[in-house]
Design goal:
With 220 residues, this protein is an alpha/beta fold. The protein has helices at residues 11-22, 34-40, 55-61, 82-100, 127-139, 177-187, 211-216, and strands at residues 3-6, 27-31, 46-49, 67-70, 105-109, 145-150, 152-154, 161-166, 174-176, 196-203. Strands 3-2-1-4-5-6-10-8 form an eight-stranded mixed β-sheet, sandwiched between helices. The protein has a two-stranded parallel sheet with strand order 7-9.
């Protein structure tokens, strides 16, 4: 297994990279700026300059990888095309290249509530709408996928246990990015994670469950 991570220097992406490195999985990280990435990511990570909005850069970068993890996301800005470009078009480009390269598993991080049009986050240039469009494009691609929809993302880890449910059943809650990264990486190893949308939060009152049991509890 060799993992290709898009959005690798973002707050969630860098934790996915760290989790992959911890599991001794070779990682290639797609970054826009090599020097910046060297300050953020472990030295064992192979860095490749590219951009999800430039498909030509993706095809070369992804060539020797077997799985893809995508944690890209538009940053709040005054550009109304940001979420369309990054959350939809960029993911679509990555899916197309992954399919052409015969990638074995594509893990995509989106968000809770992507199916809710009247959600406050959609005031940010319809960001949830475009994330949902990206999900649907991946689902129709024919690739083996796992779509991970986390609740509100926290930079600090905690001891709360992961709660995992099927699409459009969790509408509130938060989760540390470290736990999101663990879910994404575990998905690569578990057959019952395949071709599923999972929604995740962390809850201090939830009983601890192994990831295999959590994924098994979610129906396709």
């Amino acid at each position: 297994m060799k993992a290709f991570v898009a959005g690798a220097t973002g707050e969630t992406g860098r934790r996915i990279v760290a989790e992959l490195v911890k599991r001794e999985i070779p990682v290639k990280a797609l970054v826009r700026d090599i020097e910046t990435a060297q300050q953020i990511l472990p030295p064992t990570v192979e860095l490749v300059a590219g951009d999800v909005l430039k498909p030509d850069s993706l095809a070369t970068a992804i060539r020797d990888c077997t799985v893809v993890l995508c944690a890209t996301g538009a940053k709040p800005s005054f550009d109304p095309t940001g979420p369309y470009q990054v959350d939809y078009q960029g993911t679509k480009n990555l899916v197309d290249v992954a399919k052409a390269q015969g990638i074995e598993h594509f893990v995509l991080v989106t968000s809770l509530c992507v199916s809710q049009f009247f959600h406050p986050l959609n005031l940010f240039w319809l960001i949830l709408v475009w994330k949902k469009q990206a999900e649907e494009y991946l689902q129709k691609s024919g690739l083996t996928y796992t779509i991970v929809r986390p609740g509100g993302l926290k930079n600090d880890d905690n001891n709360n246990n992961v709660v995992m449910q099927s699409a459009d059943t969790l509408f509130e809650g938060s989760i540390p990015r470290t736990k999101v990264a663990q879910v994404c990486v575990e998905a690569l190893f578990l057959d019952n994670s395949r071709n599923k949308i999972v929604e995740i939060v962390a809850n201090s009152e939830a009983p601890p469950k192994p990831f295999e049991q959590l994924f098994a509890s979610v129906l396709n």
